[in-house]
Amino acid sequence: MRRREFITLLGTAAAAWPLAAVAQQAQMRMHRVAVLMLYPDNDGEGQRRAAALRQGLEKLGWFVGRNVQIDFQWGLGDADWIRSAAAQLLRGGPDVILANGDAAARITHESLRTVPIIFIAGGDPVSDGLVQSLAHPGGNATGFSVLEPSLGAKLLELLKEIAPRVARVAVLFNPDNSGNRRVSESAVAGGAKFAVEVILVPVRKSDEIEAAMMQWGREPDFGLIVPPDPATNSHRKLIIELAARHRLPAIHALRAATVEGALMSYGVDLPDLFRQAAAYVDRVLKGEKPADLPVQQPTKFELVINARTAKSLGLEVPSTLLARADEVIE
After folding, report:
1. What are the tens digits of pLDDT across the range 38-64?
2. Which residues contact 271 (CB under 8 A, 6 or more apart)?
3. What is the CATH number of the domain that holds 208?
4. Are residues 191 and 325 part of one domain?
5. Distances from the Cα of 321 to the Cαs of 14, 160, 165, 214, in angstroms?
6. Given CB 3.0 to 4.6 Å as the disulfide criterion, which of 54, 179, 216, 312 pairs with 123?
7. Do residue 279 and residue 238 come from a single domain?
8. pTM (predicted TM-score)
9. What is the C-alpha to C-alpha distance for residues 54 and 52, in angstroms, rounded to an integer?
10. Are 223 and 169 spatial neighbours (Cβ–Cβ below 8 Å)?
């Protein structure tokens, strides 16, 4: 090779090196995922959901500290607190926000019109104004709905099956959760079919829960339904303790409650939804728009029974119910 040709080739290669370096840096840019989790940071259920999200992202090639940073805001509060938490996350410059819970989904959607939002919520995303339609969200938000309109009636049916003497059932629901209101209405509709009086009890705080359950503890043949909601689920240990003290058969929509001592639960596997949500986070980080990603609806529910708790309440679990259970805690 002649000296002039060698210098020309060297110069061309040198010019290409910075471009290659820039491309590599762009590819290795640290992406940021913000998560608004309506659970205290010491709540095991919230931590399971966070771990499931990380596991889902790792399967898709996203590793914390290498090519993605996940920023969490943990806690419970009113609308002002949620707005403050969302603003705090926004200061980190997220590429996408994952909102857990109806209030988090609604308020982040109202506040942030440009940042992509993926929600996991229990309401109706269309009637709640989060999306234009389930198939074509059309805005900056999409996600996963845990709402099953007939869930309230199903919870009542299962409770009546394991505790047939129950004649009145109280539904502990968060009135700020539109999905909880629909579950409650479903339970009321199912009351006539199962000859059960359904009482709707709006609660948000622990003292409201204690006062209500103390009243029911004095009444015979009472039962309890706890729909899925971060506000009530964060008090699940209190609810479990009071239900045991007052010998109230209770069914929750959260598996974690049954693992921790509740009688039974029937609902969506929420940590699994966080693993699924990782796929939407991946697609958004790679350039897809929430407007083009259809809202996913629940397809799999799990029934968990705590046989120890049933025994302590003097209940015999029917063999047909045991056969349908996904898990029985002995």
Report:
1. 888 998 889 999 999 999 999 999 999
2. 48, 49, 51, 52
3. 3.40.50.2300
4. yes
5. 72, 11, 16, 29
6. 179
7. no
8. 0.84
9. 5
10. yes
